[in-house]
Structures are given as structure tokens and as C-alpha cells.
Amino acid sequence: MTAGPNRSEPNASDAPKPLKKSAARLGAVQALYQMDVAATALNDVLAQFESHWLGQEVEGTQYPEADRRLFRDVVEGVLREQRRIDPMVDTALSEGWPLRRVETVLRACLRAGTYELVGRPDIPARVVIAEYVNVAGAFLEKDETGMVNAVLDSLARDLRAEEFNRPGAA
Hints:
The structure is a single chain. With 170 residues, the chain is mainly α. It is built from seven helices and two strands; from the N terminus they run ααββααααα. It has one domain (16-162): N-utilizing Substance Protein B Homolog, Chain A, CATH 1.10.940. It has helices spanning 17-38, 42-52, 68-92, 104-119, 125-139, 142-159, 161-164, and strands spanning 57-58, 61-62. The protein is globular.
């Protein structure tokens, strides 16, 4: 009798579903950042992330496998809906601080979170907010993660008021 594969060592493809979704959001923000900073084309950034980052080992760090459908949906959705999303984020930001003046990673988090609030009604608003606050926390200072929370919460309460007006909703 031969032994089966050693399941005690985690494999990137064994990541639980919520971790795959979190990894997809993190990858999407990184891809949007790269597109903004380096002017990388959509197809190039999708191919690069799917073949070299998501679920891969990079410089000694094993990145968890990502929900590739969510990754693509967020990146493509932000680009497709950007003309709709940016004015919404501008309105939610403090007066005198337009989105174009916001730091690039912060801008990518706000755009991705807003896209999910607008384009993914299947994902609860509170989940979207929490996920992008966590993503922001990987790159940004506490004040900036607080801004992600405040802006996305404000937008969610406008875009998905029914989720916040239910009995028992906080």
C-alpha cells in the first residue's frame, strides 16, 4: 500500500473560499495600481497576475490562490464602470480632496470597493467594506484605512440603503 500525498503541507490551491476571495481583492487592487502607475494594458495585467502572482511564490512569499473570476470581475468592472464610479467616490470624499489627488493605492481600493457595491449586489455591503479596509491595511496607514471605511460606508448607505434599514441592522 502506498501513502497518499502529504496533506499536512498547505498548498495555495487548498485555500478556503473566503481566503481566495480576499486574495482576489488584494490582487485586483495591486493590478489596478499597476495599471494606473505603469499604464499597463488590461490584457497584459490580467495575464501577468494570473500567471505570475495569484497562487504563486514570489520572492520567497507564497501568495494564496485567488478566486480568479472575482479578480477579473473587479479589475474589468472598475475599468468598465470608472466613469460612473469616480464621480461617486469624489462626492463621498471630503470636499476639496478629489479622487485624482488621492494616493494611487488608496484610489485603487476605493474604486474596487465602489465597483463591488455597484456591480456585485450578491456580496453584502458590510463584507465589501471590511474586505477593502483589510486590503488597504496591507499597504496604507491607519488614517487612510479609516478613509476607505468612511467612504465605502457612506456609499454603501446610499447605494444599498435596504441592507442598513432592515430590522436588527446596525
